[in-house]
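cache lookup: miss for this entity combination. No prior model stored, computing from scratch. Input as submitted by user K.M.:
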Amino acid sequence: MNNSGIRHDSSGTRLQLIKAGLKRRYAKEKIFKTLGITAIVIALMMLTVLFITITKNGYGAFQQTFIRLKITFDASVIDPERTGDADVLSQADYGGLVKKTLRDMFPEVKKRREKRDLYSIVSSGAAFQLRKMVMDDPGLIGTTQTVWVPADDDIDMLIKGHIKAGEEGTGRIKANEAAWVNTLIENRAIEKRFNFAFFTGGDSREPELAGIWGAAVGSLYVMFVTLILSFPLGVATAVYLEEFAPKNIWTDIIEVNINNLAAVPSIVFGLLGLAVFLNFFGLPRSAPIVGGLVLTLMTLPTIIIASRVSLQSVPLSIREGALGVGASKMQSVMHHVLPLALPGMLTGTIIGMARALGETAPLLMIGMVAFIVDIPAGIFDKATVLPVQIYLWADSPERAFVEKTSAAIIVLLAFLLIMNAIAVVLRRKFEQRW
Amino acid sequence: MQLMDNLIMKRDEIIKPVGNPFLNEERVKISCRNVNVYYEENHAIKNVSVDIAEKEVTAFIGPSGCGKSTFLRCINRMNDTIRTCRIEGEIRLDGENIYDKNVDPVLLRARIGMVFQKPNPFPKSIYQNVAYGPRIHGLARNKAELDEIVITSLEKAGLFKEVKDNLDHPGTSLSGGQQQRLCIARAISVQPELILMDEPCSALDPIATAKIEELMDELRQNYTIIIVTHSMQQAARVSQRTAFFHLGNLIEVGDTNEIFVNPEHKLTQDYITGRYG
Amino acid sequence: MKYSILIFTVIILSAVGFYAGRSRSSKTVNGEIRKLHSLPGYYGFYVALWCGLPALIVLGIWLAFQSSVVTSIVVSGLPPEIQSLSDEEMSLVINDIVNLAHGIVVGRPDNVLLAAAEHYNRLLGTGFLALVAVVMSICIAGLGFSMRYINPAMRARIKVEQTVQVLMILCSTVAIFTTIGIMLSVLFESVRFFNQIPITDFLFGVHWSPQIAIREDQVGASGSFGVIPLLTGTLMISAIAMLVAVPIGLMSAIYMSEYAAEGFRTVVKPLLEVLAGIPTVVYGFFAALIVAPFLRDLGSKIGLDVSSESALAAGLVMGIMIIPFVSSLSDDVINAVPQSLRDASLGIGATQSETIVHVVLPAALPGIVGSILLAVSRAIGETMIVVMAAGLTARLTANPLEAVTTFTVQIVTLLIGDQEFDSPKTLAAFALGLVLFIITLCLNIIALYAVRRYREEYE
């Protein structure tokens, strides 16, 4: 029976052969396993590096350097004719007040060029701040007040240690400016405070005045439009395909379409938005309504796919039970299947919305990349969104915008984290094993 | 009533087996002593001690969930791959404890082949399926030797005639019975001393089953075979010795003829007369 | 705002219709609900649908076409000398008028435009009044009509369910219309582009510089639109990304599904998925701010000239972004390989890595290839990382340390800012979009087909 080869039949040789190879084989096993761990470690390391650099760059932006000025609200400057008229008050030369205060603080500054340097250590926003104070309370006119005004972004960077004075290459801070700052430090007239403007302001060309509120509101409008359109559309589609649709070519086409759309690059949706919503339907450029429409189309496949999975997980017995007591197909779906599948659908929707919140490219196509200072008041107003704001700031050359960009990223990531956490909690809470 | 009492045996009860679990030393291929297997808290095999005779077919029978497959998988340490599984006691192959620290599971499995419940050929050609074992173990020095091993193994598994012109076809293209014989060929390609078969015919039709049973009869000339089966007829047809398991206990062991004609234990009797199972 | 109020009013009217229909239906049978064909609520829904649905449809259509209709009316009212302007200049004029109408006054607008803006606003005003009238009358007509039809024998439930089903069918066609919309919008503009630039020049040209004509009358100075350097740039960055993502993603998937203990998996898997959840603009910032300067400094230390917008930096970061994509898809695929195959291999004495390399991976290959193709398609279509970290100049080079540009970068650059919808420069973006869409479509279809076939095999 056993007529095989020379070495094949002798079990001793066979075992020796196997034993001889074992060491090499186990070495390979070890290498392979190490490769696996290395891969995971590399991936996690990248994640850590990313988070650390963003945090390191960004946390500073939550504080802003302020300079203490003793402003005399000189009536002869603000309202020489004592009209008390709001127009007069708002047109007054508040910048002049700031400059005068600075000159008083550093009387040794005489030369024109030096004066210009001196004025530049305070943000141009200081004048607006004073105007607002006076407009709110005209009684201030004629008094002298201690006011903390934001420092210029370069001074801010200097105080935070991101740039050094007089260094070659940086060159933005001159030696005399550094000396004034030192004097201010000695007099405790300069300090870092919580940066409210960052959370309440709109975009600005001046980093120290720029805030994310405008972009956040824009994001909110876009998300609102996306949610109210994509959730009903997605759920209705999923319910139809999963519960009612006959299996035929037509539904096959729809299915292939949905799966394919889920993998179409987002920028292509932007082109669609530009050609169809802006050029064909003539909707306004840069408006949240268009952004919402584009993101709806982009998010739909995600929601549909998640909703279908959720519907599939509802056992047949529930449907049969409902049909068995005489409910119509529609009643069985609406009253029994849908409520059970809803948590899963919501989870999918939140994940889709999170992705839409971080999406940038298609919104660039429909003009949401414009420089917009005002806080948008509605879905037809010009607006921008958080990720686009990040893109715009990342493109700005000022060092201070690096900090702002990172801080805006931290805020965006915080939102995403919250949304994903909600999705996870929802999934855990309603996870049902049939 | 007595039947009921027997059936509602306490789950954690440990029974001392009847029959003749132990054999003369020269006949023994494998000896198991006080083997206990736990899956987390579940005590799956309870203090089983039994000898397996060389170049014979031993059948493990018993109702489903009785632990016979678990026990089988202890013999080639396949349970090592299940994290929650814990094994106590000793199993000796030719006198050497296979759970000894020095024993290499890879080497052990090269000595103990296994055939599974469902035919599971690799998604490769018939040739590659059989060549896989010799190749990873480095048993063939060149293509000619490998060819020879493949052909011999297929011949021994009684499959060569049917597939000799299609060695490059995928293994999955064969019929169920042919697939299972391919898996047997794959198992014997590394010339194991022992073949474990876990319900090898449960997914096959009667004709394919008959072929496998015939094959087992031939293979026992050269190999020690343990087969787990839920078919008592099959156990009676192919095996020389039979062990009956129930709820993780080994109830009775003995010559197949003895057990089927004259079972000692009430449970064995009830099972083989078909009162439950 | 005023439109929202209108929509809100329609919804409230529908709600009123619902209650009216419900109470009317039970009144017709004097409260003996069993005599009704359907539950009273269904009569309510029936009325609400008649009241709200037609009105909302009309409202939607009206809003969709309002601005183009109004614009064309305004244009037709303009003096003939303005109407005879070219399309391009015309669009500028229209833009001015719309801006004026919205109260954005730049400089000193001439009277014709001011009049037109006033005309525009007047039309919008009357349009809105007409819309309110139309929508409200449809609402009320629907309400009255459906109320009269309520009788015990009417099969309200069936009618409502049929309507709902039709609505659901309409929803499910949105996906198809999206695809058609994408194809039409890129095709239409692309055809216009190819009328100006021969398609062969576009597909086989090796020179890309879309900047044209410093002076408007410089007809002949059209830029060159050869797509080859963009293609090579895109492929190079994608290739670098895949070189990072495939080994790391695949190896982590293998480790996770074959080696890792349960506890390890529950911690690490979500962490890896965090990488996928980070917006691409963040990766772009990371690439431009951290990775690119790092590579440049590293290069200068070892004597290599690394561009600060090198393909390498963009590709590396894109690779990091794609890791979780590859790993989670491969994880699914590897888990779908039946345990019996692993058992067979281990049972014959193979080590775990031998089992993985010789049995599991070959069995999972079609699925893995599918996921890699999906990842490639994503890399090719990825926009923000390359916009922020890759260059703008199209260069035909094989050196990953140089700056290259991609399809998506060019689309963004061509379309950001003012667009003239006649210049080949703007239209070129759509032609690039078409190429991008076709490439990714092919990749997706092949990948989805492979994954689907693979799933069927092991189900």
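stored under new cache key. The first strand of chain B starts at residue 18 and ends at 19.
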